[in-house]
Amino acid sequence: MEEIVKLDSVDVYNKMRGVETLHPLITVIDLSKASPMPARTFNFGLYAIYLKELKCGELRYGRSNYDFQEGTLVFTAPGQVVGVQPGIKTFEPKGWALLFHPDLIKGTSLGKNIQDYTFFSYEVNEALHLSEKERQIVLDCFSKIQYEMERAIDKHSKTLIVSNIELFLHYCQRFYDRQFITRDSNNKGILERFEHVLNDYYTSGKPQSIGLPSVAFCADELHLSANYFGDLIKKETGISAKEYIQSKVMEIAKEKIFDIDKSISEIAYDLGFKYPQHFTRLFKQKTGMSPVEYRNLN
Fold it and tell me: Do 135 and 214 reside in the same domain of the chain?
């Protein structure tokens, strides 16, 4: 079995890349001046953001490969496993890397809200592709962070560094919103495929054997990460993927309720509910009446 190398400190990472450690909890690296990453599999204990400016060797996330293109941002969160595979040519990426330890943001507003930046859990094929202006903004944020790192650490250092990371991540949220819009035609195709997945789910025996369709299941069927899929559906429909699934389940439920040969409990089990009372509660929440009231009214 392939050995997995743990990367849980900034200094260990810097030494591997052949660069000086200016701050124990954060590093900004010009990749053109750094040693190449060895072809190994790493378990990251750091937050890492890579700005790739030239096509280079592959990174492998699980079973997925991705060739970075110019102006691409990729995000990695602590606990993720990343495999580096060199291409035919020597693996010599150009661009920048920002890595920071989770301890850096503990007790800060960023530490409390880091989960809001869902793109840290996106798959590599859901990377952020930048325009030239966006790329310049990213480089400017990196430059400000690097400036603070090169100064002697004082009582303002942490606040200024973390504030600049937070500013950078806010920009990334804006850029991803732009990317969702500019890829609107692709997104509409995903909505149609999402509907197809749900329809197929309910013409199979999956509800009885698996239960209600989950966001993770639908995302996996569409070959997307759960976070990217959820964010995309929210942008396209204004509701969460979970709410979208619930609406679909209620549409099917309304049809099934007219089958008077089946009890409400049987319908609930057919839809994938583990407990009939959960079905009744959700149905009343969505329609304003219980399944029995809906059946009698119609």
Answer: no
